[in-house]
Amino acid sequence: MGAFAPQAAPGPPLLFPCAVEREATMTIAILSALPQEQEGLVHALSDAQGTAHAGRMFWRGRLHGHDVVCALSGIGKVAAATTATALIERFGARRIAFTGVAGGLGEGVRVGDVVVADEYLQHDLDASPIFPRWEMPGYGRTRLPCDPEMTAALLAAAQACVAEAGEDLRAAHATTAPRAHQGLIASGDQFVGTAGASCALALGLRAAGHEVLAVEMEGAAVAQACLDYGVPFAAMRTVSDRADDSAHVDFAEFVRVVASRYALRVVDGFLRRLSAQR
């Protein structure tokens, strides 16, 4: 990845007037994978203002004493990296937290659980034989770390959320009480939705020492962009299925009833914990 960045073309008209310059006060970005997750967060903002930029909508306001900007990541690694870059370059994000859904891969990770990432890797990255499989060329590493302080706050918020989760959040979607996990999440531009693909992915990574808890399509790209810019990053994923043919969940219903409410509650608790650390 070179240092040169082409000059952006003029964007579409803004819904509200705002400065084009980077804003140092906009400290925390909340990145959502799904519109249903973002909707509750945007409604919770005070003094919310929307800006169209780079084909995306960004919503700025205040939440629990923080200057916040909310955005949808887009689907796939390139879309998510573009959004993360815009959050940092255009909107001055100093920290990024990411919510979304994922397929469970790890032992004991069940539908309705929450996985908080402590590291990410790109499961579809393979520049061998020039570089070892999964290693990021030019970085000398396979895994991308998440920020420890943000991750601790996010995990505490996730643990509180699942502990308080009522029957309305899980009755139709899980047979056991939800749990919060912390560990490695894998991202790739591939929807892993069969038992064969899921098993092959988990076994291949495990053989190389990578015990993956969940799989999705965007987080590692955001982690890489944040690493490049020196911006602290943390992420949580609600497990919507087991990334295999046994998935029986109505995805739209799961997102509406479970994932969107988890996202709102966890982000709320996360921001409150960051405020308490000031």
Outline of the structure:
The protein has 278 residues and is α/β, with parallel strands linked by helices.
Main features:
single chain, 278 residues, alpha/beta, 5-stranded mixed β-barrel, disordered N terminus
How would the blueprint of this fold be written?
Elements: E1 28-32, H1 35-44, E2 46-53, E3 56-63, E4 66-72, H2 77-89, E5 95-104, E6 114-122, E7 144-145, H3 148-164, H4 167-170, E8 180-187, H5 195-207, E9 212-216, H6 219-229, E10 233-241, H7 251-276
Parallel strand pairs: 1-4, 1-5, 5-10, 6-8, 8-9
Antiparallel strand pairs: 2-3, 3-4, 5-9, 6-7, 6-10
Number of strands: 10
What sequence of helices (H) and strands (E) makes up the elements? Answer: EHEEEHEEEHHEHEHEH
Overall shape: it is: globular
Beta fraction of the residues?
25-35%
Largest sheet: 5 strands, mixed, barrel
Q: If helices are DSSP runs of H or I spanning 4 or more residues, what is the number of helices?
A: 7
Spatial arrangement of strands, main beta sheet: 5-9-8-6-10
End-to-end separation: 35 Å
Uncertain residue segments: 1-24
**Global Rg:** 18 Å
**Percentage of residues in helical conformation:** 25-40%
- State the assembly state of the protein chains: single chain
Structural class: alpha/beta
Give the overall average pLDDT.
Answer: 85
